[in-house]
Amino acid sequence: MIKKFIPSLNKSSKVIERRIPVSKHGVTRDKFSPLSLKVVDKLLDEGHEAYIVGGCIRDILLGKTPKDFDVATSARPEQVQKLFRRSRIIGRRFKIVHVEEKRDLIEVTTFRGDHKSGNSRHATQSSEGVLLRDNVYGSLQEDAVRRDFSCNSLYFDIDSEEIVDFLDGVRDIKQGILRTIGDPEERFREDPVRMMRALRFQSKLGLKLDAKSYKQLKQNIGMIREVSSARLFDEVIKLLLHDSSATAFKMMMDTGLMEQLFPSSTKAIAAKPIMAKLITAAMQTTEARLQSGKNASPFYLYAVLLWPAAEQEFQEQLSRKQPPVRAMQTAGDKTIAGQSSLVSIPRRFSQPMREIWEMQNRLPQRDRAQKLLEHPRFRAAYDFLLVREQSGENLDGLGAWWTKYQDANQQTRDKMVSELPVKSSNRRRPRKRRPSSKTQ
Predict the structure, then answer these.
(1) Is the dihedral of CA 379, 380, 383, 384 positive or negative?
(2) Are 181 and 148 in contact (CB under 8 A)?
(3) Cys-Cys crosslink for 259: which of 266, 282, 302, 336, Cβ 3.0 to 4.6 Å?
């Protein structure tokens, strides 16, 4: 193992460059996507430094199959773009180059430098310390200390198959530690989304955040509201749509993140604790779907997270003598509108959410079962109904009835509907006319 002392951005401390041979870590070229190797090869041929970097190396060391592959290079974004025909520069806060080939996509970033050394054109911070623009470039060593966690500050040399490790990231992974690089408070303030990433890595990878970082996370969780509502929409999906969703939701509750992102639902959960069980049951269902290779829809996730608030508002509308259909429509509109300033939800997701909620009032209308079964949101609404029952809500066996109905043939379905209790009619009987006193 080759070691070299490199001065860090903080002159009072040093980072150590370790080049760990493949015989020690077992990560080989064939573990990475062909496109990521092609991108690095091309950059090296052009005289630039380039490495595969970050999460994909971490995942391989943890025995997982990576889905995304990133590259870090000394080349500037404009230089990278010129080398690859199908590439484009994205982002304002920090420029990234997307290189595409068929269905594969590689994110290429330029080595980052100390943002404090850049001028206002390249690095800008808000009064709260949030980095609004961060296009200061530097060396490989500077890039290493600018990353969020030690487990993500790993670089793979495709020629030697060595892992370049400046901050003991490999050791931390082996010990199950998620360690923030540098001062946790400063790093979380620079980009509050790092707090959500910390929870995601803990729940998804089984790593444990170090005590100092966890303390700062809880103390600074309110900083998450400095993040744009559009970015938070995507980050919530990343945090919860994986095979440890229930664990991630518990962490959201324990750290106060749920209250910061979904205050109306958190308030409703405090008033009606069964709602926390409902969300947990939904997260467990999500885990099962993903583990079996099925998809999980973002609109279903958000329908679950905001149901406590929507149901509370629905009950409020009913108390005002609103008809159930109108009450749920009003509740849905108010809930989504109230949420939009914190976590914005695009219309292509908010409309299916409303339909799932409104279907909860329609599913008890079993005399219209065939028509309801053909509704495009039936399956999601049915799954939602089952989650409500799993959480302990008494719905008089409605979920079991719909399960049997879906599995039955047409003859059995017709019989099930015919055997339903006859609803009493609330229609007023026609008034009898009095005989006319007039003589004909």
Answers:
(1) negative
(2) yes
(3) 266
Q: Which two tokens stand for residue 357?
A: 């909620």
Does residue 421 fall inside a structural domain?
no
Tell me, yes or no, whether 245 and 146 share the same domain. Answer: no
Distance in angstroms (rounded) separating the CA atoms of residues 21 and 163: 7
- Do 284 and 390 lie in a common domain? yes
Of 217, 305, 294, give the one whose Cα is nearest residue 262: 305
Q: Which of 70, 165, 172, 383 is catalytic?
A: 70
**Whether residues 159 and 237 fall in one domain:** no
Structural domain span for residue 177: 1-182
The Cα–Cα gap between 311 and 316 comes to: 9
Quick: pLDDT tens for 50-86. 999 999 999 999 999 998 999 999 999 999 999 999 9
Domain-located, residue 50: yes
Task: Let me know if residue 243 belongs to a domain.
Answer: yes
**pTM for this structure?**
0.84
Residues 126-178 have pLDDT tens digits of 455 444 445 678 999 999 999 999 999 999 999 999 999 999 999 999 999 99
Judge whether 70 counts as a catalytic residue. yes
Does one domain contain both 162 and 34? yes
68 is an active site residue:
yes
Q: Which of 59, 143, 148, 383 is catalytic?
A: 148
The CA distance from 4 to 166, in Å, is 9
Q: How far apart are CA 385 and CA 366, in angstroms?
A: 14
Number of structural domains the chain divides into:
2
Q: How many helices (H) and strands (E) does the chain have?
A: 21, 13
Which phi and psi (to 5°) does residue 342 adopt?
-100, -55
Catalytic one among 41, 45, 68, 414? 68
pLDDT band at 12 (very low <50, low <70, confident <90, very high): very low
Would you say residue 124 lies in a domain?
yes
